[in-house]
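For reproducibility, we list the full input for the iron/sulfur cluster complex.
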Amino acid sequence: MDPPAGCCFHTRCPYAIERCRAEKPALTESDPGHWSACHRSAELTLEGALEFGAAGA
Ligand code: SF4
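The corresponding predicted structure, in tokenized form, follows.
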């Protein structure tokens, strides 16, 4: 196990920016009961998971 510096997903995340490579994101509560550890969680609107959930049911 040798995770990369910064966000552990930055080597395969299509939304990674320079900050992702340098700084590990903190776990923060964006809405009551909804937590994320992503530098871009407040600016990205990703509907892929919702679409997958609807199609994969
Ligand atoms: S912090 Fe968010 S945008 Fe950046 S690499 Fe990690 S998951 Fe992707």
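The longest strand covers residues 28-31. The chain has a mean pLDDT of 87. Both points were considered when choosing residues for closer inspection.
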